[in-house]
Each structure stands twice: as structure tokens, then as C-alpha cells.
Amino acid sequence: MFRHPIRVLGRSCWVGGELALAALSYVARCAFRGKAAPIARAMWMQHCARRLLRAFGVESQVTGTIPSRGLLVCNHLSYVDILVIGAIAPAVFVAKREVKHWPVFGWFATLAGTLYVDRTKRSDAGRLAEEIRG
Prior knowledge:
Layout lengths: L4 H25 L7 H20 L23 H9 L5 E3 L8 H7 L3 E3 L6 H10 L1
Parallel strand pairs: 1-2
């Protein structure tokens, strides 16, 4: 099935190690920040996304300037896109409510400060808009 099972095992261990290191670095960088927590979480996410992309062997190339304010709205094509966007700029993401309950990834998304929207309730868009404004 895999042509290089040792490489796959090694890369898997590397990614697992990066996830464990990300959890530990969260405590040092974000856990006790108080009102500065959203900024600290965005910076933590950027740092971890860069490390994970390196572990996955993904190189990104950015053309043009990256916005420093406002909303960056996109419909991503894969889950790697989230890491790429998170790696190029400190950001807070918006995700569907179900993501919060995904194993491992939901936990990390919550640590990163992801805002969740319930797409079954129209009124939730107003609540989310207020959270984003804050």
C-alpha cells in the first residue's frame, strides 16, 4: 500500500509531536493572558500552523500584500488551506458549530479562538457579527 512505510511512520510521529508541542506552548503563550488572549491565540495559531506545514512538507508562496485589518473571507478547498492562511497572518477563524466537536482538531480550533456559528439558526449570524465586531 505505502511505498515507504518508515517515512510515513516518521512523518506521523513528527506531526504528533508538533501537536503535543502546540498544546504545551498554548499554556505558555495564551493560558494566562486575560484580555490579550485573542491576540495571543492568533499569534499562537500562526506559530503552530507554520510548524505543522513544515511537518507536512508544505511550502506556501504569498503574492501581494496581506491585509492587516478587516475580514478575509474565503471558501477553502481543503483543510490544509486553513493552516496556510493561519501561517501567513495572525487570524481568528469562523467555523460551523460541528467542528467544535471533532476529535483533536475541534479542541485545537477552540484553543485558537475559533468563533463557531450554528448554520441551522438564522439568528446566530447576528450574534456572530457582534462577536467579530468585538
